[in-house]
Design a protein that fits this description.
With about 100 residues, the chain is an all-alpha fold. The protein is built from four helices and no strands. Helix 2 crosses helix 3.
């Protein structure tokens, strides 16, 4: 089997997008305008998911802060230090 370059799974996922775009274009995008109007109406009525959908679509999803710690030294830092130490590097390591 010859090697295929690129993400072949990503190309398959575009089929639905293409079919939806064709269907919307066939009716001059009226259904899309109706959906947008209904979403705005629900957001104005207090539907949280509708408000979040509009925010996420316009501004992007907010970043989620994650703090992973293990004792005094954060776990990720500890793992990196252990990896460097295991590879025989002369890098100085923080104390835990």
């Amino acid at each position: 089997m010859p090697f295929q370059t690129g993400n072949t799974l990503g190309a398959k996922s575009k089929k639905f997008e293409q079919a939806l775009t064709r269907a919307l274009a066939a009716e001059d995008y009226q259904a899309l305008r109706d959906i947008a109007d209904k979403t705005l109406e629900l957001a104005r009525g207090g539907e949280r998911w509708a408000t979040e959908l509009i925010r996420d679509t316009l501004d992007g999803k907010p970043a989620q802060a994650m703090q992973i710690e293990g004792g005094e030294t954060p776990i990720l830092t500890k793992a990196i230090v252990e990896l460097i130490h295991a590879s025989g590097s002369d890098a100085k390591t923080p104390t835990s």
